[in-house]
Known about the structure:
By secondary structure, the chain is an alpha+beta fold. It has three helices and four strands; from the N terminus they run H-E-E-H-E-E-H.
Amino acid sequence: MAKINLLPHRQERRREQRSAFALVCIMAAGLAIFLVMAWNSEVGSQLDMQNQRNAYIDSETSKLDTDIKTINDLQKRKDDLLKRMKVIQELQGRRPVIVRIFDEMVRVMPDGVYLTDFERHGDGFHIEGIANDNNDVSTLMRNIQASPWFKNAALKKVQAVPDTTSSNTDGSSHKSQFSMDFELQIPDLVGVDKSGSQKSTQSATGKAGGK
Length: 211
């Protein structure tokens, strides 16, 4: 018996076309989903790699910060040590200066003058003493002013006082009591520099020998 298709051929064709269209849509959707998943996977991989790079950079930055802090601490300790060394060198260099000062005081002190007080404040000096007369006080002042170690001599006070060492008992003999200020100056040609440390240059030796 022969088979006869009673359905219109146009409806059968539309049904086949709809089936093909649905299949294409499903395949396109599947491909789109696959592409989206692949893109998400690639982006996630790149994000993970960038996060690892950021973590590495943060770790190295932290190490650098620690190293910089250590360097700053070492620099501060170095500066402190240099300051201490400078102070020690200055103190060691100025030790012979006090000997020069007392030696020079003996040189500038004229006969008939003796000191009752000697004070030093930094580079300034204050002395008090007794002289036979005002001429001896003037001589002392001129000697201090002419000394290469002293400068700016200034007489603060001078007055007559009875001479208790004199044999006269009528009070006719007097001495001059005085007080004077002056300052220290360290000469260039005496074997020490301005900080008080010893010089060893040939020029200084030559000039000193020439005198």
